[in-house]
Specification:
315 residues; mainly beta; RNA Polymerase Alpha Subunit, Chain A, domain 2; 3 domains; 11-stranded mixed beta sheet; 5-stranded mixed beta sheet; 5 helices; c-di-AMP_regulator
Length: 315
């Protein structure tokens, strides 16, 4: 039961029903034969946030929309009904046509029952002229070397900021946060939201045009050589040995910088198939497997000079 009473909506409904019953009882008792009906009128207050209408192409409201409290009068039941449904009532401050400065604007209330009236009230607001400034987009990224930002193309390069002068003066830069996943897909396009931020790095609520920018990661292709790699030999007959180049094999890979950084020597698998070869010297084509984000710098087949010898016991 306690949990039900803690439900504000349920309590309001119960109170409204009791008020209706009480009103009916009082009304029935006061309307007996030969008696004059007494209308039970009351005054109550309702509160809400005003919706301020302005010529947004010229001026902006300074600060947050005002909170207002208004007295309403009428029959008890109608007034209580209005209080119960206050979320359906609109408080409107129509400042369209007004320019820069402080204004006292009549408050208009919409959605009251026809037999309920509201007191006349004005609301003080301050309007500022809208200004326009252009800022270059600055990119930020977390968790990786910021140097990769130089390889990211931004479109457009500049953002137009529109709003009141007091807020425009707070803007230090326009920021776009780069998602790390863009580094895994060079050449693909990502659309991100831009923000106007102040000196503390906090967003400033202004109109930005456009609200997003397109990013493309286009790093320069680089090369990296991996040395001392040991291949896997396949098909070597029993009693035979293979002699490989001294110091192992070297492979040069080509790819974007961030992709090359992630490659380890163990990711490069070289296989030499000598099935059916008799002892002797050969230049054998090897199979080289590398991560999909990079490729061999030399498109020509990877050939390895080898020597197959018979063990002393079989000679």
């Amino acid at each position: 039961m306690d949990s039900l009473l803690r439900n504000n909506n349920l309590v309001r409904v119960i109170a409204f029903i009791l008020a209706v019953i009480l009103w009916l009882v009082v009304r029935a008792g006061s309307e007996g034969p030969g008696q004059t009906t007494i209308i039970d009128r009351v005054t109550e207050s309702i509160s809400g946030t005003a919706d301020v209408l302005v010529d947004s192409n010229r001026v902006s409201l300074v600060g947050n929309p005002p909170e207002v409290t208004v007295n309403i009068q009428g029959e008890r039941l109608a007034v209580w009904q209005a209080k119960m449904q206050v979320n359906k009532i609109k408080f409107v401050v129509d400042a369209r046509g007004m320019g820069e400065g402080v204004h006292e604007v009549p408050l208009r209330i919409e959605g009251l029952p026809s037999d309920v009236t509201a007191e006349a009230k004005t609301v003080s607001i301050r309007l500022e002229p809208n200004l326009t400034r252009t800022f270059p987009v600055q990119l930020v990224i977390d968790g990786v070397d910021p140097a990769v930002l130089r390889d990211i193309r931004t479109n457009p390069l500049d953002i137009t900021v529109f709003g009141p002068a007091s807020l425009l003066d707070q803007v230090q830069k326009i920021q776009a946060r780069v998602p790390n996943k863009i580094l895994d897909a060079p050449g693909s396009e990502q659309t991100v939201i831009v923000y106007a931020v102040n000196a503390q790095g906090k967003p400033v609520n202004l109109t930005l045009q456009p609200k997003t920018v397109d990013l493309v990661y286009q790093p320069a292709v680089q090369r990296k050589t991996f040395s001392n790699l040991q291949p896997t030999v396949k098909g070597l007959a029993n009693g035979e040995q293979i002699v490989l180049p001294t110091g192992g094999l070297s492979v040069t890979l080509e790819g974007y910088g961030v992709s090359l950084i992630k490659v380890n020597p163990a990711d490069i698998r070289i296989t030499i198939d000598v099935t059916g070869l008799a002892p002797g010297k050969y230049e054998r084509e090897a199979t080289v497997e590398v991560p999909p984000t990079v490729k061999l710098a030399d498109p020509q087949p990877f050939r390895v000079p080898i020597t197959i010898t018979a063990s002393p016991k079989t000679q």
